[in-house]
Amino acid sequence: MTISDDNQKPKPAKKLGKSLDAISALRIAMEERLAEAQQEEKKSEQPTPEPPPKAESKKSEEPPLQPLNPQNNIHDPGEWMRIMFHVAEQSQKLIQEYMERNKGKSVAAAVPPIDPAHLAEAFGELSNRILNDPENFVNAQIALWQGYTKIWQNALNRMQGKPAEPVVTPLPSDKRFKDKEWQTNWLFDYIKQSYLLTSQWVRGFVNQESEKLDPKLARKLEFYTRQMVDAISPSNFWLTNPEVLRATFETGGENLIKGLENMLADLERGGGHLRISMSDLKAFKVGTNLAITPGKVVYQNDLIQLIQYAPQTPTVHSVPLLIMPPWINKYYILDLSEKKSYIRYLVEQGYTVFCISWVNPDARHAKTNFDDYMTEGALTAMQQVRQRTGCDAINMVGYCIGGTLLASTLAYLNAAPAAPHDLPKVVSATYLVTLTDFADPGDLGVFIDDDQVKAIEEKMATRGYLDAESLATTFNLLRANDLIWSFVINNYLLGKEPFPFDILYWNGDSTNLPAAMHSFYLREMYIKNKLREPNGLSMKGVPIDLRSITTPSFMISTREDHIAPWRSTYASTQLYKGPVTFVLAGSGHIAGIVNPPDANKYGYWTNDKCPPTPTEWLKTAKQHDGSWWVEWLRWLAPYAGEQVPAREISKGIEDAPGSYVKVRAI
What we know:
Blueprint: E1 11-12, H1 15-45, H2 77-101, E2 106-107, H3 119-131, H4 134-159, H5 181-184, H6 186-210, H7 215-231, H8 242-250, H9 254-269, E3 295-300, E4 304-309, E5 315-317, E6 321-324, H10 342-348, E7 353-358, H11 370-389, E8 393-399, H12 401-415, E9 425-432, H13 450-463, E10 465-466, H14 468-477, H15 480-493, H16 502-508, E11 513-514, H17 515-527, E12 537-539, E13 542-544, E14 553-558, H18 566-569, E15 580-585, E16 604-606, H19 614-619, E17 622-624, H20 628-636, E18 643-645, E19 654-655
């Protein structure tokens, strides 16, 4: 993937010309080799050897590629030569067409050789540790070669038809080696085991040596080592991936040609950046088959549109529900298709539901800060809910950074000497995968230190916001095998179209972030971790203290969360003064939350108590099947109020999902 530098002037895309020269040279060489192979085949068919024919002045034309049939031999070099000649010829045409379409256009210049993450320094420190303890390194090398020897012995046994137990196997969750050839073919099994042994050795050795280093530096080394190890997996290369080789033979190389078409289309769509398609972009449309729960935008300002959803029951609970989604992503993750919609589910359970749809920021919002999201977002939405329902109470839900804002808002209302008087009382607060203590933000912390944040701030200064593409790339790296390499294989090597998947479509519909807000968020919360400190942060000039929050709280976290690790979110249970219920769900940051009861997936854990540490909590937690949604509604019932006639929406600005959510940044 290309990373642009906004301070550099765009330069014409000249490098593709070199690719054309290389392909032309390959084509000529393959043509000559194919002609030689054909001549040798003709000679072998004649009973009496004849003198070799005189060299022709002109090369013979390559016969057209014939359709393959079951009698073709996948081990036939001549057939492979024909396939690769066809791929090279068609690739040349595709690249020529791409260059013609993009003639006169420019791509962003390459990033200058800077290293804000100080990776060279980090790996240099690791090297010094190794050099200072050569004995440990030698012992580790011996263990590695012993493993290689066992793998090779097993491969020899399998070549002779003898059984052999594998030396190393992939984890059950590792989808890279699911093709049966990785197990049944001795050669691919050998390649697979050699890679797994090497990758486990490298990661294990780096992790062991990193224990002697600063914890932040150690995590950085571990993270980027994993990235490198994942990148060189044999599954990512067509010559060492049996599924790709099989597809190449069966289709006569059309999979590679189609894969090149897909890659060039992604390059064109990204304006010179490789923007990998993760879902069929034509399969979904916001407002048509996503975000379709009926409702209206009943209020808007420069930062939010407030959506009120139409009732679907004759009566509703008297206390309305306001949802504050993250503005790092779009709200409709909570309103996907009908069967996955958290919002529709709540409406069907008889709740009056409001949801904030945040604006997709541009240069106008450069100075919009975190506390502006409170005043123009949270507080304004609360006022509007009270005006439209006439209810003096409200239940609130915050998702991810929306939950961080919810906690900050409640602390502000407790501390502000002149808080607005027309606000409803928050009778319950629900936090979905929310961090308020950033001491250990997981792998995301790899990207956040003073120098890296400074580099981000310099980039934001040119536009007034962090572009959505940079943010999306960061999140995708947290799960590179699932969100990058699997699509490289599917789209570019197998030549398939990405599967239409609503969550991945949403994942690619990213948002920008205002410069002032993002800088404050990274520096004050992630780096300095001021939010957890009493009066460590101020909102609109008012110091806040999360320990002042007496509102009953429900916290839901997910066991495989890469963005808000559950052991870190658990720290909030020790901060709030009011009663806290903590629930742990299965799966990750998105799938664990968007888990409707009908799916009956993942399960969840509950515990009536919140001991000091997450380890203690989990030891005595009780596991349940199904969705946490049902558990949460039971908890919410005492705060929902009595039944009242359904609240019809008298008027609105426009129909849900509104216009703000339809603005694309990528």
